[in-house]
Amino acid sequence: MRGEDILNVLLDVEWVVGSFVADSAGQLLLHQMPPEFGEQELARTTVRLASIVRCAELCELGVEQCAFSLNRYQLSMMRFRGGFLCVMVEAPVNRRALDMATRIAVESLPQLVDSLHVGSAAPDEVPAPRTAPSLEGEGECNPDRPLAEPVREAEPGLAPIFEAGVEQIASNGNGAEPALASEKDDAL
Amino acid sequence: MRVSGRGMLLAARGEECERLANAAAFIHNQAKLIAADLGRHGRTAVHLKGGGLSLLVVKSEVNDIAAALGSTERLRSLLRKVGLG
What is the ipTM of this complex? Predict the structure, then answer.
């Protein structure tokens, strides 16, 4: 399965904006994102994601998955042997379909990452990230979806995907911490 | 655990709070930069999960950083509230 085919499985899920793949060190290997996302920005993002994973590992949390809530968007990261897959979605995405598509992609990615590394001439040489060609041409990746839209303000029914929790935490501004304490978490 | 934007520990409970505060401050900063690079400015929340444990880092409305580390099951309701459950 080619990299493009693997990432297309994800793109077929409605409300998936795009996806990208990096190796364990955070080096961007492959991406299929709308043109509004520059390669440099994606490369910086994968390096930062790798550093977040390392940070958690220093706290003895072996990270398997990571999710970022970014207004109405979410960036999900899933690790696999040799790297990690990131998928950017909009809030209404069908989680079950996305989970299955992610599992299919993650199953094929270790082999692909291995082949990309075997193909590089020297171990320290940084190969240029590959762009899945199907997103290079406008309109080829499901024209029904607003891929290049700017961030929109909250819309009715979609708006505060994490507002409630933040408000609850914000209410702790006086030093008390009822919201988190009520969760009986192990360390706060 | 809550930590100010400048890294001051505001409230804490449990073991390893200092280390968790450091991690939360670092992760929050990285998340902000990721959001900016991806053109998705605004309040961010991060959920790291592995081995049945979860670490949640959220920016609160009073501009400090709240973090919780614990079993994923125990944090489930909080994760749902921040849209990451």
Answer: 0.92
